[in-house]
Each structure stands twice: as C-alpha cells, then as structure tokens.
Specification:
The chain has helices at 22-43, 69-81, 102-115, 125-130, 144-156; strands spanning 47-49, 59-60, 65-66, 85-87, 94-97, 122-124, 160-165, 168-173. The radius of gyration is 18 Å and the shape is elongated. It has five helices and eight strands. It has a three-stranded antiparallel sheet with strand order 1-5-4. A three-stranded antiparallel sheet has the order 6-8-7. Strand 2 and strand 3 form a beta hairpin.
Length: 174
C-alpha cells in the first residue's frame, strides 16, 4: 500500500479545532468529510469508532493536535446527511462509513448484473464483493455489511430478493 497523501490543511493546526465562523466551519467540514472518505478508502475501512483517538485520521502526531469527539461527530453528521455514513449504535460512537452512498453501490452492482447477464441467478455476497469477476469494479472489496445494506435498497425497489441460508446471504436479481 502506498503512503496516504494528506492535504495541506492536515498540517494547519486550526484545522483540528471546530471553527466558530459559519462559512469557515462549513468549508472546514467539507475538507474533513472529503478527507475521511479518501483516507478510509485508502485503508479499506468501512467502520469508525469515535473512541479511536490514536488513528492518524483523528491525530496529527507531528502537530500534537487531535480532533475532539465533538468535531468527529460533526464530520460524521455531515457524512450522514450526504448518505455516506450511518451510526451503528444509539450512542453514535460506532459508525459505518461508505465511500459511495448505498444507492450508488446498489446501482453499480445492478448495472454489473445487467451487463453480465446475471438476472434470475443467485449470487453470494462474497461473489459480488470479492469475486474474480468484479476485481476491476469500484464496488470490489466493499464490506459485506455495506453491500447487504445497499442490496436491501435494491430489494425495496423490486430489483432483487435477499436470501438467507445458514447465517450467510445470497441475492437473486430480477
């Protein structure tokens, strides 16, 4: 894995403090949300814990600066509003973060199904997320829990049916 390229703002100490001026704060949150998505994609992670204060995402060791839990929650709240995150617990301490929205993931998978003629066939989540036939696609390597959430949206639209067998999932596309 190559080293992650941090944006210049990451070396700017005020970047780690929630800015009081509305316009500045909105710009700051935009840069942070982009950074969260790029970093998590680079590290192939789909979950975040607010308590993980040692993550380089939350802590710039060279500046001796770290994000407050309040700022992390504000960033995740912005990601939630754009469909890129959802809390996994009621206390909002554990989060699932998506590089693409669930709808975008669902559309990518469905387009792949149509292009490869796999309607009316059953696929496992592993085949979709990690199979040899998807290695060049943007959804390859997606966390199966994220994929399952995206497929539930497709199921609501009548494009597939989820099947549970012995604790694992399959999906039949229409």
């Amino acid at each position: 894995m190559t080293d992650f390229q941090w944006p210049w703002e990451y070396t700017f100490p005020p970047f780690f403090t929630l800015q009081p001026h509305e316009e500045t704060r909105q710009q700051q949150l935009k840069v942070w949300t982009d950074l969260f998505l790029k970093y998590l994609r680079h590290t192939n992670k789909f979950t975040l814990s607010i308590g993980d204060q040692n993550s380089p995402l939350f802590h710039n060791e060279s500046l001796k600066r770290r994000l407050s839990p309040e700022l992390v929650l504000a960033i995740l709240g912005e990601l939630e509003q754009t469909g890129h995150a959802n809390p996994l617990d009621k206390r909002r301490q554990e989060w699932q973060v998506y590089w693409y929205t669930l709808e975008e993931y669902g559309n990518m998978v469905y387009d792949w199904v149509l292009e490869t003629g796999q309607t009316n066939t059953i696929c496992t989540l592993y085949e979709i997320a990690s199979g040899e036939n998807t290695t060049q696609l943007d959804f390859h390597g997606v966390d199966e829990a994220v994929l399952l959430s995206a497929l539930r949206l497709l199921e609501e639209k009548g494009r597939c049916e989820l099947i549970e067998m012995d604790g694992s999932h399959g999906v039949k596309f229409f």
